[in-house]
């Protein structure tokens, strides 16, 4: 009678089928063309129901054999359907001692083989804690043994799907006194159990369709190890001023990368889908040396992306300005003009604010490097643009003896990335080829003295006490808060800007002495960016093992960061003895022509502490740059308003005093008071397709709870700068403060939403 489900008592018959028939039977079942997928799914579901029959024997053996048989013939759709339909029922059976062994065997196989998405595991996560407590109360030896097996299984799954701190914290708390398997063992278990040797080959479209998450934000589908891109895109999308500029650009009829980014941002803002698949953007923005489907360094990707967008805009500007003169000139002189324009762009850093590219306006800052010969005391200086600062970890000694950094060892050069990402606006008169033209953007050019070494003992002579005290004070603050030896971002920034001694293999060639000399190198930020991007240099090359190892140190992240900016007050345009530098009109409102002083002259600087607030954090989970997973935390921060925070709700929750202290001394009390009241739903966690609400506490505690999950790339937004964006734009209504979209974009989104909803 098809209207009735057959009784689970049928399970009693299974023990009478000889086990040696399994291989033959399963092979004929899975390869029989007459057995339709639907009836196979139904049969498998019924067999799983039989696990509930206490008198049954061998049911789990048959179920696991059938699951393996279906995987062998790649019937993944059946496996996914059955796993998602039945995994909660199987987990439920663990409550009953008689059927527990069989249920645990099937549950382990289901979870460990379902490696393409956390969906199955996350169905049972909410029920784990109560079961663990029940096993503990039970006190029976059998319960304890099962608890150890279950704990090992759960650890494997949490390792495989890292990046869900909110979900896993209660479980970690519940099993903290149970033995934890080693990383090697976890990797072994996972590698032996996947349906396919490469689980990422399963199409991502197999995950279930569901509507947008309660956050109202859209996730990004992982296209096969593309979390390095997804986490960076979400951080850029949440950089509110940057997103609004991108969305407001008029790029009709243009097939540029910026147009593709605009398309992606528009979909993230307005789609009805829970997650969007950024295929077109991925193909257009993937660096050519990145192997598809393999894990990559998100900081390298971000640098490449910003560089491409910057280059593209400059080229388009040069072309369009060449076109305007078309009517006046004949063809020959016109091409010369275009070439000339392009050269002007490549050589001249002296662009007014309207001539700067969007990337320069949003992420561009300026660093001044001064090298002072310790023999003749002559100085040479150089200014260069940056879009991000790479912060090296200070050797522990440098904080105690805190002398200037000493740079003797030349082999370290290659181990650490170049300290600054140089934008292609080099000083006129010394036309440096920009990194993109030289080698396809593969790495930034190694300019003199842009690499910091932190492997050697610092030299304690020539100590600059003020720097030292600053480092020491910050360290004391962060230590007293976070426990022993926790560095803060401020410590790393101070270390980056601390004077550095060039000696040994790294001596400086002084033109005045006409020989190699010991020298002191200092770096100063002379123009601050709207968005400050900081990369913590966590990956160092291990020459013995030929791999890039990861520094897992916890670094405390201040909510408010103060950037010391030394703007030159003298508007006199003088050409320096060492390097010649053009005039740069800053768009920060100073409108001072910044010029470098002649060698040896005294410079009047007003070091100013510019406040920044934390906007987003990209986290790397794993132990090397070639593996692991990326996800990001971000919140709504805008430049306008006294606090720069875009409050979404009116409810207030006080930040704990510890968090307040971590912000370190703030230059203006207004900022600190505003930041005391953190919005409860202001932070978001973006983990590929999944977006959830989170809190700043969760961001701060991440490494202490999950030792291999560490902050890697940080975005800070400059406080109280409206950043020249006219919100009362003439072109219509703004949605959530975002500009209205171009018509063709809006049409594409509306069409896709209709399709999706159907």
TrEMBL record:
Residue ranges constituting the USP domain according to the UniProt record: 218-719
Q: Where is this region: Disordered?
A: 453-472
| The species this protein was found in | Ciconia maguari
Q: Which family does it belong to?
A: Belongs to the peptidase C19 family.
Name the InterPro entries on file.
Answer: Papain-like_cys_pep_sf (IPR038765), Peptidase_C19 (IPR050164), Peptidase_C19_UCH (IPR001394), USP (IPR028889), USP38 (IPR033840), Usp38-like_N (IPR049407), USP_CS (IPR018200)
Reading the lineage from the top rank, the first entry is Eukaryota
Q: Which gene encodes it?
A: Usp38_1
What is this enzyme's EC? 3.4.19.12
In its UniProt entry, what is this protein called? Ubiquitin carboxyl-terminal hydrolase
């Amino acid at each position: 009678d098809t209207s009735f489900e057959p009784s689970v008592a049928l399970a009693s018959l299974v023990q009478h089928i000889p086990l040696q028939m399994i291989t033959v039977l399963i092979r004929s079942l899975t390869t029989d063309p007459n057995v339709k997928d639907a009836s196979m799914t139904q049969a498998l579901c019924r067999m799983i129901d039989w696990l509930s029959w206490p008198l049954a024997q061998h049911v789990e053996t048959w179920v696991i054999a059938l699951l393996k048989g279906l995987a062998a013939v790649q019937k993944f759709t059946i496996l996914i359907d059955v796993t998602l339909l039945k995994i909660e029922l199987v987990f439920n059976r663990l409550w009953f001692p008689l059927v527990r062994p069989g249920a645990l065997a099937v549950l382990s196989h289901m979870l460990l083989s379902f490696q393409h998405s956390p969906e199955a595991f996350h169905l049972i996560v909410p029920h784990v804690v109560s079961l663990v407590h029940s096993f503990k109360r039970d006190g029976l030896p059998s319960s304890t043994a099962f608890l150890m097996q279950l704990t090992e299984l759960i650890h494997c799954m949490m390792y495989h799907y890292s990046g869900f701190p909110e979900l896993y914290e209660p479980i970690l708390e519940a099993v903290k006194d149970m033995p934890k398997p080693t990383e090697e063992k976890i990797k072994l278990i996972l590698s032996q159990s996947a349906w396919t040797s490469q689980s990422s080959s399963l199409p991502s479209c197999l995950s279930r369709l569901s509507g947008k998450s309660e956050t109202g934000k859209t996730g990004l589908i992982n296209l096969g190890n593309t979390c390095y891109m997804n986490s960076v895109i979400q951080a850029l999308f949440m950089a509110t001023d940057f997103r609004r500029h991108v969305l407001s650009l008029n790029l009709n009829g243009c097939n540029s990368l910026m147009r593709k980014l605009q398309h992606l941002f528009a979909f993230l803002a307005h789609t009805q889908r829970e997650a969007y698949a950024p295929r077109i953007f991925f193909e257009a923005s993937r660096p050519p040396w990145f192997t598809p489907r393999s894990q990559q360094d998100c900081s390298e990707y971000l640098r490449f992306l910003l560089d491409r967008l910057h280059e593209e805009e400059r080229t388009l500007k040069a072309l369009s300005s060449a076109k305007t003169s078309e009517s006046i000139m004949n063809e020959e002189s016109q091409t010369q003009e275009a070439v000339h324009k392009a050269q002007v762009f490549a050589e001249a850093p002296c662009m007014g604010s309207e001539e700067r590219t969007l990337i320069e306006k949003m992420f561009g800052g300026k660093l001044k490097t001064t090298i002072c010969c310790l023999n003749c005391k002559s100085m040479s200086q150089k200014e260069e643009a940056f879009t991000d600062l790479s912060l090296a970890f200070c050797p522990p000694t440098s904080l105690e003896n805190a002398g200037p950094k000493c740079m003797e060892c030349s082999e370290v050069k290659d181990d650490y990335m170049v300290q600054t990402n140089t934008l292609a606006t080099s000083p006129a008169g010394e036309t440096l080829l920009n990194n993109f033209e030289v080698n396809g953007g593969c790495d930034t050019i190694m300019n003199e003295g842009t690499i910091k070494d932190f492997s050697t003992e610092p030299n304690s002579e020539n100590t600059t006490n003020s720097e030292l005290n600053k480092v020491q004070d910050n360290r004391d603050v962060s230590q007293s808060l976070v426990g022993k030896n926790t560095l803060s971002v401020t410590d790393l920034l101070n270390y980056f800007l601390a004077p550095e001694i060039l000696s040994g293999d790294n001596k400086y060639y002084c033109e005045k002495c006409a020989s190699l000399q010991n020298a002191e190198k200092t770096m100063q930020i002379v123009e601050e960016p709207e968005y400050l991007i900081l990369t913590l240099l966590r990956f160092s090359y291990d020459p013995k093992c030929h791999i890039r190892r990861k520094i897992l140190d916890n670094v405390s992240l201040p909510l408010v960061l103060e950037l010391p900016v030394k703007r030159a007050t003298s508007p006199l345009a003088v050409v320096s003895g060492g390097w010649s530098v053009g005039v740069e009109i800053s768009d920060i409102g100073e409108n001072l022509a910044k010029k470098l002083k002649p060698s040896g002259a005294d410079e009047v600087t007003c070091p100013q502490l510019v406040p920044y607030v934390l906007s987003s954090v990209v986290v790397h989970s794993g132990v090397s740059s070639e593996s692991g997973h990326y996800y990001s935390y971000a919140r709504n921060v805008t430049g306008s308003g006294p606090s720069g925070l875009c409050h979404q709700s009116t409810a207030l929750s006080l930040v704990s005093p510890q968090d307040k202290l971590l912000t370190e001394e703030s230059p203006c009390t207004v900022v600190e008071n505003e930041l005391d009241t953190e919005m409860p739903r202001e932070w978001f966690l973006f983990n590929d397709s999944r977006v959830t609400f989170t809190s700043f506490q969760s961001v701060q505690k991440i490494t202490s709870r999950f030792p291999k999950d560490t902050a890697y790339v940080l975005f800070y937004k400059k406080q109280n700068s409206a950043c020249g964006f006219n919100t009362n734009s003439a072109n219509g209504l703004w949605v959530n403060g975002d500009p209205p979209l171009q018509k063709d974009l809006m049409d594409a989104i509306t069409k896709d939403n209709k399709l999706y909803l159907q």
